[in-house]
Amino acid sequence: METSQLRFMTSNQIHFSKDNPSSKYLSFHLFTHLPPEIKLKVWELSLPCRRRLFTLCLNHEAKNDAGVVHGYKVSIEQPPRPIPQSSVCVESRKVVRQFFRLSLLVIADNDRPLTVWINPESDHLFLRKFDVDITTFANFIIDIKSSDPQRKGILHIAFDSLCRTSVPSLKALSADLANDVPQETIAALSEWVLGLKSIWFIHLLSSESRLGAGPISGTGNSTIKGLNRSMPLFPHAVEFDLFEEDIRPYQSSLKSHTVFYNPNAAVKAWEAMENELGIRSDARPHPARQISHILAVTARQGYLRPASAEVRSARSMDDYLQLEQERTKDFFTRGGGTFFPQWRETEEQKRNLLSAAGFWVFPYGTFDTLEEKLVGKACQDLSDQRPGLGLFEL
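Structure tokens predicted for 2EXR domain-containing protein (394 residues):
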């Protein structure tokens, strides 16, 4: 029906619609007659291949059910979709456990306990609220590592670099290590950090940053060079594809973009912990892990739209973009177009914004030349940057 069609085209629709298989290829009745090694290989190739990002909150519990201090509770914002192969047969379950081999007990909706199975090679754990001490954090890391048959544990971890709780807690880790932390805890953390593949510091701006309007989008809005429609929206989603460079043809200028708080604060806090562990000293090799800045607009809060319009699907993404257009129209109605006529978009541009539910990936050192404009607000010239793009499947 015409009323059910989406009004805006997004990169998510374009990219993920190519992966829908034709139904005529979904059955193979001679599968059970294949040799066991071939069947195992087929099950392996059938496993989900998307990367996943789990948004978690790690909270300290003074005492857990076993009466042990430094316990913790982990809640998850969006549970993953079930892996069908885990409930088909013995062979398929065996293959699933080889790849999705880490178990993490989390609290989902309505305080429901849920075990999430993690593929450490491709899954990322995003600790959006980080408010624990070094021992509790170490227990969290060590517990997950103990569930790994390969004894590696988490290989990709992310922190919220804009969260007022997370950044002070990250800064406190190095000070905690200087106190009476058991040597076995220090050794376990050091081994884990040395094995990390990537650390992301996620910087989520308010929804107004795409409009060039509002208190966070610019210092007096004089530094914004046009509507930044290409800045991705960070939705409630789990599975994503990662591109080394933003694949979209629509790329607005990133020059003098306001990042509000300094994204380097969390990075420096993490590096201070590495120094305290002795990992970054001349006596030990530098970790092989890669540090990256993640920049996106949160699609979860702000005055742009009601809470019911959270971006979780293609339809809610379309609703969000419609609300954004209405806000832009109000801006011009109030006289903004008089000062910024270059911000106007044609009707065709409005229908084909190629917006994305995802995030930008910037390399380590991107914000080393950040310029303070006002207390708590800073701008970074990103005009020569071509960030990578994480694209969520909605």
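DSSP finds ten helices and 15 strands in the chain.
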